[in-house]
Automatic annotation (TrEMBL):
Swiss-Prot/TrEMBL GO biological process terms: acetate metabolic process; acetyl-CoA biosynthetic process
Binding site for ATP: K14, H211, L212, G213, N214, G215, D285, M286, R287, G333, I334, G335, E336, N337
Chain's gene name: ackA
Localization (cell): Cytoplasm
Residues annotated for substrate binding in this entry: R94
Needed cofactors: Mg(2+); Mn(2+)
Native organism: Desulfarculus baarsii (strain ATCC 33931 / DSM 2075 / LMG 7858 / VKM B-1802 / 2st14)
Cofactor binding note of this UniProt entry: Mg(2+). Can also accept Mn(2+).
Keywords assigned by UniProt, alphabetized: ATP-binding, Cytoplasm, Kinase, Magnesium, Metal-binding, Nucleotide-binding, Transferase
Lineage: Bacteria, Pseudomonadati, Thermodesulfobacteriota, Desulfarculia, Desulfarculales
GO MF entry, a single one: magnesium ion binding
Protein name in UniProt: Acetate kinase
UniProt function note: Catalyzes the formation of acetyl phosphate from acetate and ATP. Can also catalyze the reverse reaction.
Amino acid sequence: MRILVINTGSSSIKYQLFDMERAVILASGLAERIGEEQSSLRHKAFIDGQERLGQYDRAIADHHQGLDLIVELLTAPGVGVITHKSDIDAVGHRVVHGGERFKAPCLIDEAVIAAIEENAALAPLHNPPNLVGVRVARQIFPQAAQVAVFDTAFHQTIPAEAFLYALPYELYQKHRVRRYGFHGTSHWYVTEQTALFLGRPVEELDIITVHLGNGASMAAVRGGRCIDTTMGLTPLEGLVMGTRSGDVDPALPFFLADQLGLGLKDIDRLLNKESGLKGLCGHNDMRQVIEASHNGDEKAATALAVYAYRIKKYIGAYLAALGRLDALVFTAGIGENAPQVRELCCRGLEGLGIAIDPARNLAPNHGPRLISPEGALVQVLVTPTNEELKIAQETRKLLNGGR
């Protein structure tokens, strides 16, 4: 079964093509700046153990043309991995917000599209472009099954005491105001991969997963089921991120409006685009923050400390929520590649059974690996995430009747 996984943004299409029978990735790529004068499409094919590159550097008018060009590269001599678009059996779509309705992946039909549209108010920057990808893919691949995998689905096992805000209850009843959480596909994949690596049934494990990229979130997972997560109604809540503030005093917007005269759009931009690491030290790329900190930049050092401290607080909170802890797992770009961040997050937690072995922490990252000392009470791991592969796996599972 060949499954194309696509993640559609407002001006981009990220894709990977998998051969699920051979368990290999055939191709991947990214179309960017769709709708602009200088668009680009970078394509990488894996043929006979070699990487072959293809690209377009010209205006891509819309997502339909972008996906047409992707098909052109997937079938082109030299960089193609299929002979015709009909060779694609299914398309797996990343959809950010499924609300309370979608607790698992599902086949896309008109009713599902309507429900995704209804949830657009909860994710106005993500669900509409995700739907564009769905509609275009249905036109271009009419023979293929179309499956939606929701970022929020893994978190739908969170109990009411964790997902309800202390607001008038009718806001939840009538307007669905509650904690939803995001990065669910990553937390789900990493949970399963960690259990495989440890050689234990996932149902027996209590795990804290720490997804650290430009966006960042954590999840408390008991027996393979999420019981709490740091992101909330939107992806703004929780950890300090590249440009997002994470947790702040809820009265802060009123202060900014009263004292600085900022409007709602200004405040939204400040909290989502101008805060986090960028707001604290001017850099939203963790690599730049670490480098500046090493070079004596006090703001960068403080930003790094704030970033790690917030994670450390949630580690403690989630250990309390779980009652016990088998594994603490770091993943995503920063979680997998920044040993200093991992060390800072765990420093001082030895009394909770959490410690890092310096040599293991600095070792190259090749698949899941332990970074805690031998005999540690809590096993600390680095487990690479692969959201696209998880989407492909769930798409195949759904089409095979749950197998």
